[in-house]
Amino acid sequence: MSGRTGGRWAAVAAAACAMAAALAALPPAAPRDAGGRAPAAASVRQVAVRAPAKCADPEASLRPSIADGPAVQRIKSRGRLIAGVDQNSYRWGYRDPATRELSGFDIDLVRAVAKAVLGDPDKVTFLAIPTNQRIPALEKGKVDIIARTMTINCDRIKQVAFSTAYFEAGQQVLAPKGSPVTAFDDSLKGKKVCTAKGSTGESELRAESHGATVLTVPNQLDCLVRLQLGQVDAVITDSALAAGQAAQDPSVRLVGKPFTTESYGVAMNLGDQDLVRRVNAVLEDYRRGGAESPWMVAYRKWLAADLKGITAPPEPKYKD
Amino acid sequence: MSQPQPDPGTRRTAWREGLDRLKASATTEPGRLRIIGAVLAALLVAFGAVTAWQVTDRTTASDAVVDHSQPLSADAADIYRSLADADTAAAGGFLAGGQEPRAVRERYEKDIALASELLVKAAANTEGSHGAARQIALLNAQLPVYTGLVESARANNRQGLPLGGAYLRHAGDRMRDDLLPAARALYEAETGRLGSDYDDAESWPWVALATGVLALGALGWAQRRDYHRTNRVFNHGLLAATAACAVVLLWLVTGHALARSGLTTSYEHGAKSLRVLNEARIASLQARGDESLTLVARGAVLTPEGGDAYESSYRSGMGRLVGADAKDTPASGAPAPDSLLGRARALADGDGGREPLVKAIEDVRQWQQRHREARAADDGGYYERALPKVIGEKDSTGESFDRVDRELGQALAHEQGEFRSAADDGRGALTGLAAGAAVLAVLGAAAAVLGIGRRLSEYR
């Protein structure tokens, strides 16, 4: 997870197809770590069937442009950007119970898009979109963009268009400080592990449980409740979300390295090509400026405390 | 020191001798009269005794209905209600965040205190009832777990951590999956006991009635025999005995019939309505809790179809309360006849019972309307507008819910009164019957013996 930049991308691209198809989280089990584990033969076959050779690089997006097309015109004439976000992911998109304001890394990104398109970061209508409603909401035109820790993969790029990757995360283990659990390995043997139902973590554990018993809960945050109540010994979730959990409980920490790689992108309707280019232009500006870039500022504000060691945003990739 | 064994031969002879004497006396008229007198007296005393015994049984059972099982059933309903109410208050207070209104917090604390207190009371009164005892043990074990989770939720929420919401949902799940089913099972067990006490109190005293009819028949036969033998129309003693017997029999039939009808009324108009109203109140509490949790969970928990789990639970609660919405158009006006409020209204009698229900139905409709507005605002991205529509003091779903809860409380109080007065009427009908039957039967037996004695004296 930490500071992976251009060099890493070569390896990623090489295995991108297998990886990304597996990221769909639709097949029950699919390994995706390009460098680390040897994928099981069955899963490779599955991947080969599911993802045709065309999907070599799902993270590659359209080149940035600030020219107005029909989608940008639609947002301008409405005067508001409609963004689908999460309200429950601490540090990413969540509603502070005290201020009742939405905040987080994803929210800052949406505001940057609103500022670029409409000249005002507050001209946004935030809709809370549940995980499984992200693609339908875009297809039905309920929202213009989805910024909701959404992983780019080969299955999804057939249904929605993604911006360039704005964050790189991976499944990781969260355990109490001083726990014998040290990574996604045999230190999990005989332990109880919690993960969200239907998540990538669940399919990873189904493929290789390392001798752990698995408890699934409706939402990843429910795992932290179970961990605090002593009902489980460790949590497996996305490193980005795990950072949000660690931020809420100083006695837990992320252990080991992320054992998968997933890139987050801003999702839009397949037809809104002008909007995709516009958002990519915003992301270019967002990344620009080295340590003082808006991206790094947002990273330090929301994530650095629990997701240490990131020195730069992921490099963009373009397909045209 | 040894005593001679009683000679079995001697005893048999004595027994045989007694029988022989009885046989011998049955061949003479005075002998027969003595036997008839003894049988009549025995029948009358037996009638009195059986009546006293069976009526006492029924009085005890109807006392149990009024003083024991109905209050216990009502207490179990209160445990059930206060738990559901606590859960609703916890979710409401949570939504208000740091500005949790004092009244909401007090309501939660009062509910938990009441539930604990009633659980202690119920535990002391469930002798021999295993089902109830098991539920009480479960409730006692789970209640502190629940309150612990709610406090964790509050503490995290006050620090602005979304973890608080996850704790509250976990607490809500414990309430829904463990506590409320146990409270419901306790309520069912106590209500089952109420039903069996009702059955005991209402069952006809057949043995007493049969003995009475037999005694009356025997008296009639003796007087007819007397008339044929002596041509005298009346034997005063036997006549008085017949009158006493008839009075007891009549008293027994009318007294029991009255008691029975009083109890039946108390069941039909009281216990049955109380049950439906309690269910309705719980359904409204759960719908309110779900409504708050929809805003707390913010789409974190989904149904398999992809809808919000709490919104869908709210809808099914409202469906139980007033009937499900049609596919596209929301239901309005009168509730569905098989819904809880529809049934409660059909069972309610008198203006006192009907009025609060009519108002409650109107308020549920208003609640649904406001809920739709709140959901539309939240779904449209206006959480800030949705929140006051749910927890605000004026024109909110909370205001509608409070009115519904108050009106259902009034309807419950009314039905409790109906139950009590009908059951008291029923119990009154049996007053003095046991003692009266015993005294009259003894007097009748004495009169019969006197009457036969008068005939016997003619043979000396």
TrEMBL record, chain A:
InterPro entries: Bact_solute-bind_prot3, SBP_3_CS, Solute-binding_3/MltF_N. The keyword Transport applies. Residues 1-24 form the signal peptide. PROSITE patterns: SBP_BACTERIAL_3 (PS01039). SUPFAM superfamilies: Periplasmic binding protein-like II (SSF53850). GO terms for biological process: amino acid transport. PANTHER family: ABC TRANSPORTER GLUTAMINE-BINDING PROTEIN GLNH, AMINO ACID ABC TRANSPORTER PERMEASE. This is Glutamate ABC transporter substrate-binding protein. It comes from Streptomyces triculaminicus.
TrEMBL record, chain B:
The chain crosses the membrane at residues 33-53, 203-221, 233-253, 429-452. Keywords: Membrane, Transmembrane, Transmembrane helix. This is Secreted protein. It comes from Streptomyces triculaminicus.
